[in-house]
Amino acid sequence: MREILVIGLTLLLASLGAARIEVLWWGKVSTFALLATFPLFLLTSQAHHTPLQGWQHLLRGFTWAIGSLGLALSWSVFFGYIRPAMAALSTGRRGRQI
Fold this sequence. Notes:
By secondary structure, the chain is mostly helical. It has helices spanning 2-15, 25-43, 54-80, 82-97. The chain folds into two domains: 1-21 and 85-98, no CATH class; 23-80. It is elongated, with a radius of gyration of 19 Å. The two termini are 38 Å apart.
């Protein structure tokens, strides 16, 4: 859902003539956290429904923590783009008026 909102708002800002927005460092961190959880969840799953080993239980808890923090951070960063987006919109429009 978040990515659909990001795409839609990016297209809207571009159509309104906004200037380029720099990527936030925390956005990169949240993306890394979310992308890291996928292979970690694969490591903590068992084929043929065999019981998990001890290290897999520990890793699964750690993976849930990383994924949860990454998801919360990604939404926080999403709302953190409001101020830069508004500045980019006014800068882009001001640059086109000259």
